[in-house]
């Protein structure tokens, strides 16, 4: 897609205010055409250029209540959607198959007797948007929350106006039309709010959904599909005695560390049990937590078979005894339960690792502490076993030879200053870029990210930072660790999956990574930031500008 084409398509930005004027930034208002059909009018429109979207959805952010634990319902914020045009199967609810209310204890398998009639399985998460590569999608978003928000399509290659730079805020009661061509390859992408300073709280309240892209190559691979293709969103929460989510950001240390909850939720449910048949599954894991990093493994030591990362399928599967999954990252597993005995129970666990870096931490369940993530219950008779294809996809990698700065990578350091997390010593500024943050369209670059090792209060402290770059997928081409941190690194490094496209990369304290990226199709202002959402909100985010 040419950038010019997108500039001309500014007219597509329908700011159909519900009766009033949309409160948006000047340049967007200038692009809005007056008198466009109102969203609430219910009609379809094909845009000025006459291009009809293949898929048109309505998406609302609302405040609502869900039955989460026995007793009071839980107040949450949630995305709700409906298909206005296109395949009805493009919108799905996330499987939250708890048929019963779990007890409050997160650690045992006993359940309370189900109330009659059994409550509807329900989750605050979702929906799942399913799109095909090449489709044009239009999402008529309405903000019914009491505060401003903006939706970010994490991992998707979309123009800046669609990418939720925090300056494109949608005020309460207002609407915004996100419209873009699905350019990404098949994979598990996601969407969540992105307002400056409010992202962590909004995600915590429940706002997150999946954006699953399929394509022809994936069809050919013949992976488990339909009800054998299961998204699993992992999050953590603190839940009070009245079943309400508690978001405490009390002390300065809490803000520096980020939010850590002691209840582990999968697909929005505590004590999640996934029931599977004796056959292979495709499991799509997203770490949708604010700050928690998971070191995922089966409790019996069986290896994990990884088939995809943030940006879609690997070329061939990769075996790991455990997988590191930092906030924002996705990993897909091919999990074969055919040789498991009927009625057996397996646990997906998070193993112990040094997760606090040189920070202290008084949280009830620290980053790096071990716990159970979910149960898998195997039922039924052994089914015909479809083998895992040897070749999953073919990837046309960026070439290091094409990089304009291979010898002198553009460098970014994550460090602490004045008790804040910074990128190259700077905090987020809404409209500014530094010289080092301006790149050219159609160039390939090497970026070096460095998680600077601090040495105590005055020398600064250090912890894990999952760094995320908007608007593109990159390759991780090298990792290095400071010698003092070698032992800590040993306990996580075999869980990195750098064999595929990534948009978020985890760095341990003292770790350096080199990335290969290419800036294509769109010019304008994007952000890069730490996906520890409390770090992001605290200013650990910066703009970068792609110039023609
Ligand atoms: Cu998922 Cu800018 O983030
Ligand atoms: Cu993103
Ligand atoms: Cu961080």
Textual characterization of the structure:
The protein has helices spanning 3-8, 26-31, 199-204, 216-221, 252-257, 486-490, 533-537; strands spanning 55-66, 74-85, 91-92, 128-132, 136-143, 151-154, 175-181, 187-193, 209-214, 229-239, 245-246, 263-266, 269-270, 273-278, 280-287, 294-298, 304-309, 312-320, 323-325, 330-336, 345-350, 371-382, 410-417, 420-423, 438-440, 443-451, 465-469, 475-481, 504-507, 511-519, 524-530, 541-547. 7% of the residues lie in helices and 38% in strands. The radius of gyration is 22 Å and the shape is globular. The strands form six sheets. Strands 10, 11, 12, 13, 15, 17, 18 and 20 form an eight-stranded mixed sheet that branches. Strands 3-4-9-8-6 form a five-stranded mixed sheet. Strands 14-22-21-16-19 form a five-stranded mixed sheet, with no helix packed on it. With 548 residues, the chain is mostly beta strands. Strand 10 and strand 11 form a beta hairpin. One copper (II) ion binds at residues 152, 154, 468, 470.
Secondary-structure map:
Blueprint lengths: L2 H6 L17 H6 L23 E12 L7 E12 L5 E2 L35 E5 L3 E8 L7 E4 L20 E7 L5 E7 L5 H6 L4 E6 L1 H6 L7 E11 L5 E2 L5 H6 L5 E4 L2 E2 L2 E6 L1 E8 L6 E5 L5 E6 L2 E9 L2 E3 L4 E7 L8 E6 L20 E12 L27 E8 L2 E4 L14 E3 L2 E9 L13 E5 L5 E7 L4 H5 L13 E4 L3 E9 L4 E7 L2 H5 L3 E7 L1
The structure holds CU-O-CU linkage and copper (II) ion (2 copies).
